[in-house]
Write a structure and sequence with these properties.
Blueprint (H helix, E strand, L loop, with lengths): L3 E6 L5 E6 L61 E2 L5 E2 L12 E12 L9 E11 L7 E6 L2 E7 L4 E7 L26 E4 L26 E4 L6 E7 L5 H6 L3 E7 L15 E9 L15 E4 L2 E2 L1 E5 L3 E8 L6 E5 L4 E6 L2 E9 L2 E3 L4 E7 L7 E6 L12 E7 L31 E6 L5 E2 L17 E8 L5 E5 L4 E9 L1 H12 L18 E5 L11 E4 L3 E8 L25 E5 L2 H5 L3 E4 L15
Parallel strand pairs: 3-17, 5-9, 8-13, 14-18, 17-25, 26-28
Antiparallel strand pairs: 1-2, 4-6, 5-6, 6-7, 9-11, 10-12, 12-13, 14-15, 15-16, 18-23, 19-22, 19-24, 20-21, 20-23, 24-25, 26-27, 28-33, 29-32, 29-34, 30-31, 30-33, 34-35
This protein binds copper (II) ion (CU).
Amino acid sequence: MSFKRFSVLCSSGLWCFLALGCSGQAPSGRAQPGDLVENNERADTGGASEDADSPQLGDGGSEPADAPVEPLSVKQITLWENVLEKPAVFVATRKSTKVGEPDEYKVTVQVTPVQMLPKPWPATRALTYGGKVRRDSAAASQDNYQSSPGPTFEMDRGTPARVTWVNEIQEKHVLPEAESSIPADAKGKVPIVTHVHGLEVAPASDGAPTAWFTYDPNGKSSPTYDYPNSQPATGLWYHDHTMGMTQYNVYAGLAGAYIIRGATGSEPSGLPDRAHEWPLVLQDRAFKTDGSFDYFGGDVTNVVNGKVWPHLDVDRTLYRFRLLNGSNGRYYQLALSSGKITVIGTDGGYLSAPKPVDVVKLAPGERADVLIDFSKSEGDFVTLRDLAASTDPTDPLTQVVRFTLSSKDPVPPAAALTGFKALPELVREPTLVPPVKTMTLHSGDISLLNGQSFHAEVSETPVLGTTEDWDLVNLTPSDHPIHLHLVQFQVQSRKTVDVGGYQAAWTAANGEELPLKHPTKEVSAEPYYTGTQELSVTESGWKDTVAVPPSTVTRIRVRWAPQEPETDTTADNPFRFDPTVKPGYVWHCHILDHEDNDMMRPLTPMKPPPSATLPSLE
Ligand SMILES: [Cu+2]
């Protein structure tokens, strides 16, 4: 029996773990309370830290060279031995010389050993992104660098990028589990395709799931994608999106940060400088004693920027962290061992004002732009924790990254945070679209949206320039984060719903057999609302991914236009590119094995009819 574990929001409303392929028991070898090993020097701080209730784990021992390969237990890993690394930054292979011309990049995808576990545990053979990078702002660039997570794209708003993606994987997939999902016409090779999550981009450059490609010795398979970088400053991410393979390719390493910066003076002021700004790519991974990934394995670890349970030495001052949930199916509830986290941005940009919170919830695919003020911290350590991982605070999975505070005097922030702007109000377009479109989430043998399989005829054909409300009705017992390509949207509300009553009405309209063999007949969920749930702070800004908890309806408002439209906003296409052409877009669940197993649907925007009068966009 194999296991794959991730946390989900149970129907009871409590966060819990779901073990797929088993009856829900903890995976074997998993640390239980009382299992802790007490000989970790770094963790043994004599109780001086405010972090005294952290688990103190690990003998840090290595296995003899001829030891059999076994699942690696968390008890064998020393927490905070690893040092957190800032991903390298891609360097353009050719800089544009004219305004509007793209900077050009070449990104190679390879199999590379990556030291994810603390030494002396072996390196992990991972799928890596790479090319020409610089490691920090002062250093010269370096070629042929590979890493997982991949190097960060640092983009300037208004400067397009042209990226050539080169598949150089000539060996088998690093996850044996992936082999059976490799498409028949790619057998023996590893298909990849890259999607920049949250980017306003033309269909041909969106990384459609069916646009995968494999290693080609003649170099002819490599697609070149155009990224406009026309949307507001924010933190996006790039990751693999291959049909049926996304769960394996992302787990094996294919993810990285993609940051868009605003023009000088256009972003809020008072924010930390780049030295005090870090992307934190959060992922969960299990390993074997030879360093290899254990995809269906037991002991899950917290991996941050490719390092298992790392620590970072920090100044006692204000830091900015761009949090990214890059896990396949894990939900985080991030909190500090002491102090608050200030949220300044969400998936698609800045909030209208900084908001201090105790907990930042992140579903798979979601991001949060946050500040932590270590000038207010006492003691020697502050730990970022995941309250969703376990109710037992000694469970190592509740520990994410430890910040070790400098012995130097605190340097409080020099200036107040200013320059945050109100979000534009999206106004529903009442004449060209129905009042509310109702979208249903189903589970069973396979997971489905609207009862339809991925390959069924496209049914989401929104009119460009219009604004729609989508009710996302979750009829399943677990949470699903729903991601729309092309657009950023705003979350309107979350209602609890009488699932039994709604399901009966939906089945009466559509029949019991799934996937449906006919177009879905929409059934409004409004008569079945039973109450209202509060939205979280990280749902109060622009979003491209939203959690839809079980037995709820999450309503989103989507404007089928650029996030900040340009001047002629009543044109029949407000985008700089044609979003109506093939291969179109998709919307899907961002639990990766759900999207691989049919919880994904095509999405093809349409031009408005010639007679239509479109709303003016602001
Ligand atoms: Cu799902």
